[in-house]
User: Fold this.
Amino acid sequence: MKNRILSLVTCSLFAIGAVGVLEHTSLVAQESGKAAKAVKGEGTKKATKPGDRLPANYGQIGLSEDQKKKVYDIQNKYDDQLAALQKQIADLKAKEASEVEAVLTPDQVKALQAAKDESKKKAAEKKKAVEKEKGSEKTVNGDK
Assistant:
């Protein structure tokens, strides 16, 4: 009996983790879609796209504007391929989560959905508390 309960809990936790990964992956896919639009020239005003960022620590080594442009061009060259791979990863994770969820009983699916809803509610409350705290810090710092 203990083994069965442990198995159910393990499967539930795994499914929750898979869903969390899917939610994160969908955000990544949305961002990669934005990158693909920028590469195609939609909404760009300069030679580089608005979201261009130098790799970590490159801003500290004194790159010239020409070097920065070359780095951005190289990054842009790979955007479509990276976006396609990110979409492929998102699709695989969605397929995996679907197969994992298919293992669950209807009651477990309901319990999983309730757990997800509770997690979202707690995350929203935490975000609201953090934003409220930041707002009060601005007020305190603004008075100085």
Residues 35-47 have pLDDT under 50 and may be disordered. The two ends are 63 Å apart (CA to CA).
